[in-house]
Amino acid sequence: MELGEFKPLLTALVLPPAAPLLLALLGLLLIWRKKALGGVLCVVSLGGLWLLGCNAVAVWLALHILPQVPALPPATAGAALQARQVQAVVVLGGGVQAFAPEYGAAQPTADTAIRLRYGVWLARQSKLPLAFAGGVGWANSGTAAPSEGATARAALTQDYGMALRWVDDQSRDTAENAANLHTLLARDGVHRIALVTQAWHMPRAQQAFEQAGFTVTPAPTGFTLVQQRSLLEWLPTAHGLQSSREVLREWLGLLVAKP
Fold it and tell me: Could you tell me the fold of the domain covering 74-221?
């Protein structure tokens, strides 16, 4: 077993909802001997879980703990890529649904579908070739799960009538996305890319691709934004918790990646 296979487990334990729940459990265990401390831990953990479930908190975290990467202006996105002499649009995988009963086959997750749609739009606007990077991820490493690359290739052909020029379907994380795709694209002399991924993932992804040898023009999508009326933004939801979790995961990833 490779060390990378422990990453999904460790990530799950240090991020919500597991981390606040484990803290609450510790509080319950302590409450019999140290009532005050145990009670404080329970209140803090459950209060923290409530706040992290609020989309308003996720938006605040995205704005204040992650580097900000603006969207490409939609009216001039294609021209901007051409002006920067970008040679290809690269889309990063964001997960795959191993089997979708309604299709009878694997399908991209919502994150992957958002990235693919924007990548296709950007490639058409700029008339640039399209690349995709995504294998099975550490969580499914060693299993029979379909690769993101193969699923994306099929989805683009069926839904957009568009072919991928390059596909990396072996990588298990962002660093491998960058390294494997650089090997593929360098054979065709491609070094300047527009990188498509979620806005919260862009700072770490851009760092990895630049370290691999690319010149990167960030093309973020899927921004963490206000979704509803103010009061509703402060009520916990699954969407709010997931958004907070994504932002915190990327923040931790950037801290770990620091030299």
Answer: Rossmann fold (3.40.50)
